[in-house]
Amino acid sequence: xxxxxxxxxxxxxxxxxxxxxxxxxxxxxxxxxxxxxxxxxxxxxxxxxxxxxxxxxxxxxxxxxxxxxxxxxxxxxxxxxxxxxxxxxxxxxxxxxxxxxxxxxxxxxxxxxxxxxxxxxxxxxxxxxxxxxxxxxxxxxxxxxxxxxxxxxxxxxxxxxxxxxxxxxxxxxxxxxxxxxxxxxxxxxxxxxxxxxxxxxxxxxxxxxxxxxxxxxxxxxxxxxxxxxxxxxxxxxxxxxxxxxxxxxxxxxxxxxxxxxxxxxxxxxxxxxxxxxxxxxxxxxxxxxxxxxxxxxxxxxxxxxxxxxxxxxxxxxxxxxxxxxxxxxxxxxxxxxxxxxxxxxxxxxxxxxxxxxxxxxxxxxxxxxxxxxxxxxxxxxxxxxxxxxxxxxxxxxxxxxxxxxxxxxxxxxxxxxxxxxxxxxxxxxxxxxxxxxxxxxxxxxxxxxxxxxxxxxxxxxxxxxxxxxxxxxxxxxxxxxxxxxxxxxxxxxxxxxxxxxxxxxxxx
Length: 508
Ligand SMILES: Nc1ncnc2c1ncn2[C@@H]1O[C@H](COP(=O)(O)OP(=O)(O)O)[C@@H](O)[C@H]1O
Ligand SMILES: [Mg+2]
What we know:
Layout: E1 2-12, E2 15-26, E3 31-35, H1 40-43, H2 45-55, E4 64-70, H3 82-92, E5 105-107, E6 110-111, E7 117-118, H4 123-132, E8 137-141, H5 145-148, E9 155-159, H6 162-171, H7 200-212, E10 216-219, H8 226-232, H9 242-254, E11 270-271, H10 279-283, E12 284-285, E13 290-291, H11 293-296, E14 301-304, H12 312-316, H13 319-324, E15 326-331, E16 334-339, E17 343-348, H14 367-375, H15 379-383, E18 387-390, H16 407-425, H17 439-445, H18 450-462, H19 467-483, H20 491-501
Parallel strand pairs: 3-4, 5-8, 8-9, 10-17, 10-18, 11-14, 14-17
Antiparallel strand pairs: 1-2, 2-4, 6-7, 12-13, 15-16
Helix pairs in contact: 2-3, 7-16, 7-19, 17-19, 19-20
């Protein structure tokens, strides 16, 4: 009877949990079983491990091998247990000569049949766990070294082959390495504001939305540049702070979406899911409880193009992240909460054909079609959108003349300045932007003169301005004042803010 134990990690949402891999090798009919709520990808580990051990020149005992993954009540998914399982078997059956496997090492990696170690998802959060648990070493696939190097205070042992690791263990010396990570703040985009002709007021609205983190809905006929405007937003957003980079990179590491050759995400994400995207794809969850688009857009932009085409139920699910900055998804064993603090940018045509109210082209929709289309956006969701603008057809004469380059760089500098003012002002409370302000802080931080206040209150009485709308206007006015580098909110700031809220032309 032989026994072995090594340490590994499991992913639970976007967190890593320390996991013990145990092996029991005892007489009986030869067999190989993995227990401990192992999902399909983990169950298949036994075939990969068997192949890898054989091809690396090790003998697998012709006995009954049982692998247990503890804690046994957590569902295990992923291929990263392979390496720990292989080392565990080798240590139990004496495959590693004279070696005592140290218990302050975490082993992560997928094995291919020839014994090569492949990269896996979620190494960044596992490295963070290893560091929090005060482990001495993390053995990991060479492919994931750069990403893990973001975590300080843990010795990284990158390997390419199983055999290489066995030799190190036999020699009693793990070779550590660290990759240097260059963080570039260069904006890499094919878009620039200078490529957009006309649409000055839309550009101004996007500048304000980006500066304060406000949500924005653009409505207008097709071909006026709504999609183009939205795709240009990443060029005017400030680069992420160090903490934000880590937060966002973790999400991309766990979902396996880190771009190749890029260890860290430095720019705000921009996600634009198609309207046919499923509910799970958008909000997350499903059998593997993985994060959805709202989480991938964390600290960045979620762009819903032609928003009325999305399923109503899916749009309703956006209410929680819009309000709280997180999304809760349920799975069989309970619920998981993912971060989902994003700026919602949406576009919409006025009707299915897009020409309702167009002076040049007649709308071909029936009244029922129009009502149905506009009703897709429920009142409560629309009420959570801070700014609404109309993107009108622009004068084609604007195409004359050369484009002035670098407009996005200029705007980004202004937006960054305004964001820094906010960060400083809100250092003591849990907010980064004006949009983040919670009700108890709004009136204190967004003070307006008494006469203007009375004007706003009268507008509330006379129009459909809701209480939530009142607070939104204060926050937007605060952002406009910040862009103006004005400590006080002035009348002109407030009136401009009002124009983005009380947009009757939207007709929705
Ligand atoms: N304001 C503009 N300046 C320059 N090109 C534009 C503008 N608006 C639209 N275009 C051109 O028309 C194309 C379609 O615009 P798009 O953003 O998709 O419009 P919409 O989303 O409003 O239907 C763009 O890719 C671009 O080539
Ligand atoms: Mg479009």
